[in-house]
């Protein structure tokens, strides 16, 4: 990967973050809806504090997974065909486009995780434990979801099946991330080592990243 | 390959899904040529432009653009030398006109200060901070022409380049087309306005039912 490659990655990140700043899809739509989804659970099952504390971390990760993938898929599939053509004719390396879109989605997902996490702490009285490992877990989940969503968005763009494919593609690949994230938090809470779960999530991230980079060009051409 | 031959299509067919859009297309375009491409709606003009832009591969026949085989990875290497302005603007409405050009410059690896110069060249010097989505269709098209000025292109593919443009902009576009041809590049212009294109084109071809005549 050359200097030109990373230059293109930076250009795509700048472009996507500028677009998000002006559209506000994540900041003004997805984050409030994520917070509302967390708020609806206590309204539905009642205000049993002990129960809420028990299910809080799991609810948080489920919300992060569902909304997180939607954020990344939305970002990846928001380019029109003329915009994609124009970028291709500027010489944009499809792999650089993939990495740039995934990186900008990662930044947005970290904001989403942080804000929704604060809401979860307030509503469910979730305790914050093992901060360094928790940050690593949040970061890996954000990267994983961003890569997964960006890859899915690229596939959606390149097929006539459209968004109907999203659940089929995302569900199996997000399971290890959801499992890793919930078990990591549980391990931190109980004072156990979470290294194996972190490694599992990192392996998933690595696999999706490799698939995304290797398929970027063929997906652009279909 | 003949050195001055920029586009060579031989018996080319293009399928999109189960539909045959182009069939048995033979076309040669040489350096310095301006070629008009006519045809009714749905004749395959836009597909022909995207084919020449290396953005889609032929299903039948053989084709080379700027020396690159349309079915081999070498086509990626020539893309930066091909400019295309489609019927729908390929710029980002959430970015300003200036930001759109700066993005293009960064990706293409040209100095970003050329963005301002190119905008000025198409009469948009004072509109750099204007959001593309809040700009008129004509201003968006001018911005796309500014992008093509900024990057050194050998082949320009233009789909209805005169639409939504005022008289000054039309003069500017026709000047750009003539300049590109004089510099040794080639231009393909798709249009329904035969009279206007016949004045600037060296020759013209017609697509009908996916076949060139």
Brief synopsis:
The complex is a heterodimer of chains A (222) and B (213). Chain A has 222 residues and is mostly helical.
Would you mind describing this structure in some detail?
The complex is a heterodimer of chains A (222) and B (213). With 222 residues, chain A is mainly α. Chain A has one domain. Chain A has eight helices and no strands. Chain B is an alpha/beta fold and 213 residues long. Chain B has a domain of 148 residues: 3-Layer(aba) Sandwich (Rossmann fold), CATH 3.40.50.300. Chain B is built from seven helices and ten strands. In chain B, the strands form two sheets. A six-stranded mixed sheet of chain B has the order 6-7-8-3-9-10, with helices on both faces. A four-stranded antiparallel sheet of chain B has the order 2-1-4-5. In chain B, helix 3 packs across helix 4, helix 3 packs parallel to helix 5 and helix 4 packs across helix 5. Chain B is globular and about 50 Å long. The two termini of chain B are 23 Å apart. The mean pLDDT of chain B is 91. The chains are: A mainly alpha (222), B alpha/beta (213). Chains A and B meet through helix 1 and helix 4 of A and strand 6 and helix 3 of B.
């Amino acid at each position: 990967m050359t200097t030109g490659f990373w230059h293109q990655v930076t250009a795509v990140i700048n472009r996507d973050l500028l677009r998000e700043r002006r559209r506000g899809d994540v900041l003004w739509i997805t984050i409030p809806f994520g917070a509302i989804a967390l708020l609806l659970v206590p309204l539905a099952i009642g205000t049993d504090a002990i129960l809420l504390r028990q299910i809080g971390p799991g609810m948080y990760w489920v919300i992060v997974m569902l909304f997180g993938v939607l954020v990344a898929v939305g970002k990846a599939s928001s380019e029109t065909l003329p915009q994609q053509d124009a970028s291709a004719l500027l010489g944009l390396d499809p792999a650089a486009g993939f990495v740039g879109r995934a990186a900008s989605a990662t930044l947005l997902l970290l904001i989403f995780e942080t804000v929704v996490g604060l809401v979860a702490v307030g509503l469910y009285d979730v305790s914050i434990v093992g901060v360094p490992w928790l940050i690593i877990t949040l970061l890996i989940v954000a990267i994983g979801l961003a890569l997964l969503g960006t890859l899915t968005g690229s596939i959606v763009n390149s097929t006539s099946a459209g968004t109907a494919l999203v659940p089929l593609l995302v569900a199996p690949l997000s399971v290890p991330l959801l499992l890793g994230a919930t078990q990591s938090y549980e391990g931190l809470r109980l004072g156990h080592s979470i290294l194996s779960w972190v490694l599992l999530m990192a392996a998933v991230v690595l696999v999706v990243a490799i698939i995304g980079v290797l398929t970027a060009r063929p997906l652009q051409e279909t | 390959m003949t050195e001055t031959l920029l586009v060579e299509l031989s018996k080319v067919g293009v399928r999109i899904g189960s539909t045959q859009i182009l069939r048995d297309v033979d076309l040669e375009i040489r350096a310095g040529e301006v070629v008009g491409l006519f045809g009714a709606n749905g004749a395959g003009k836009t597909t022909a432009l995207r084919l020449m832009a290396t953005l889609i591969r032929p299903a039948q026949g053989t084709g080379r653009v700027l020396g690159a085989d349309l079915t081999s990875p070498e086509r990626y290497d020539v893309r930066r030398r091909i400019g295309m302005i489609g019927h729908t603007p390929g710029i980002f409405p959430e970015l300003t006109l200036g930001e759109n050009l700066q993005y293009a410059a960064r990706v293409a690896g040209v100095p970003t200060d050329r963005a301002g110069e190119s905008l000025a060249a198409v009469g948009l010097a004072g509109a750099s901070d204007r959001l593309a989505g809040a700009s008129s269709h004509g201003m968006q098209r001018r911005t796309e022409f500014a992008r093509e000025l900024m990057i050194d292109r050998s082949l320009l593919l233009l789909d209805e380049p005169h639409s939504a443009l005022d008289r000054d902009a039309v003069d500017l576009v026709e000047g750009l087309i003539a300049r590109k041809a004089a510099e040794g590049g080639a231009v393909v212009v798709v249009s329904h306005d035969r009279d206007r294109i016949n004045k600037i084109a060296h020759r013209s071809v017609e697509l009908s039912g996916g076949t060139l005549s």
